[in-house]
Amino acid sequence: IKMDQSLKDLIAIKINAIALPTLLVLALIGNPLSFVIYSRRAFKNLRTSQFLRALSVSDTLESLMSIFLFLDNGFLIPASVSSHIGCKLFKYIQYSACACSAQIQAFISFERMISVILPNRSFRIFSIDLIGKSSIIFICLFNALIYLPIAITYEPVDISSSSTSSNDSSLSNDTQNINGSEPSNPILMCQSNDPNFDKYLYWYDLANSTLIPFLIMLVCSLITIRGLNKSRANTNRRANTETLRKSQKSRQSKDFQLSLT
After folding, report:
1. pLDDT, tens digit (0-9, with 9 covering 90-100), for 38-92
2. Which of 210, 158, 200 is nearest to 183 (CA)?
3. Is the pTM of this model over 0.85?
4. Which of 75, 93, 102, 177 has a CA positioned 20 to 30 A from the CA of residue 210?
5. How many Å apart are CA 72 and CA 125, to the nearest integer?
6. pLDDT tens figures, 119-159
7. Which residues contact 62 (CB under 8 A, 6 or more apart)?
């Protein structure tokens, strides 16, 4: 079904103006609330509480960076490109927080898998507070160092001149000079000054924050489900064996009483 370009733009504007703010409000309320809840004494001793608190912090940072993205795309307010430092921090925190969130979720899935397939074993080291904090610090430092080139190479770039041809640009300049009007405002975009860097960053970020965590969560979830099913089958088998043993013992007792009479 072919759709008119103006209708596509209208749908995109509506989605950007309604759906994104709704999700941002829910995220900015829900994530800090989750952090407060899992910081309470009743939940603080849970093995995954420290991972969920770290996940709340990274998701909150990612949501805050999405506000700048919403202002850029929805209201054409160059919030993320208002300065060189703002551009660098916006992209750096956006990529780092997104990768941390995905990897923490993958680590939670891995911890759940270990606790199911190896219960009451020495492998349940994630209950140790130091191990959990060290894992979170490692994930944060790893992504902070990996995405550090973003803070070095990214800067606000004027893309208005590249979006038009040279003839159209000269024609518009002549028209503006004749009418005595000022040239149009530049269209800024936060991007790398190296054209090849964005290409490599795209593929690396796709693997680091999407594909690899997704595969880890998928594999760990399948193994966890298999372990739960196996554990349930063993429990049912033991229960059936115990029931059969009790019935045999009861039958033997009745036979013995009948032999005495």
Report:
1. 888 888 777 788 889 999 999 999 888 888 777 765 555 555 556 778 788 888 9
2. 158
3. no
4. 75
5. 45
6. 765 455 555 567 778 888 999 999 999 999 988 888 877 66
7. 94, 97, 98, 101
